[in-house]
From TrEMBL:
Protein name as annotated: DUF985 domain-containing protein
TM ranges: none
Domain named DUF985: residues: 4-140
Database matches in InterPro entries: Cupin_DUF985, RmlC-like_jellyroll, RmlC_Cupin_sf, YML079W-like
Organism, scientific name: Methylobacter tundripaludum
Length: 161
């Protein structure tokens, strides 16, 4: 399938961080009270796709851990900034001989950006635990990232909206 067929078949919509997504699961089971005094669903999941016309998932961080699962298309490059300022680069894809990974865990509290560097699309799923809530996501602002990680600005500036 091409990207347009996948967008239609999977009912994908534009995502605030870039690319396309569709929520596929939200657990009815709830956690206890979280740090913001709200119970959360235990797990949520989405399809997420970057395309040649929307190739960047802009820099953001989530409170929860997220597991990313590669499904198909071209590989996706991940740029993960840990709280200590260490930049980690990973590639989610199917060519294990080239060091690509089928699954990637990004811990809550880390900044991450994703890029489709070649090809028409890269399709993944994400599982989030506790489940995703929009108020748990922070899109990076230029001033914040420049101040917090000046040593990385030259490498990550294109991923900040």
């Amino acid at each position: 399938m091409n990207k347009q067929q996948l967008i239609e078949k999977l009912s994908l919509e534009p995502h605030i961080e870039g690319g396309y997504f569709a929520r596929t699961y939200r657990s009815e089971l709830k956690t206890g009270i979280s740090s913001d005094a709200k119970p959360r669903c235990l797990l949520s999941s989405i399809f997420y796709m970057l395309t040649d016309d929307s190739p960047i998932g802009h820099l953001h961080k989530n409170k929860s851990d997220i597991i990313h699962y590669f499904h198909g298309g071209s590989p996706l490059s991940y740029f993960i900034i840990h709280p200590d300022g260490n930049l980690e680069m990973k590639v989610l894809g199917s060519d294990l001989d080239k060091g690509q990974q089928l699954q990637l865990i990004v811990r809550g509290g880390c900044w991450k950006a994703t890029e489709l560097e070649t090809g028409e699309f890269g399709l993944i799923s994400e599982a989030v635990s506790p489940g995703f809530e929009y108020e748990d996501m922070e899109l990076a602002e230029q001033r914040t990232i420049k101040n917090q990680f000046p040593h990385l600005w030259g490498r990550i500036s294109k991923y900040v909206r």
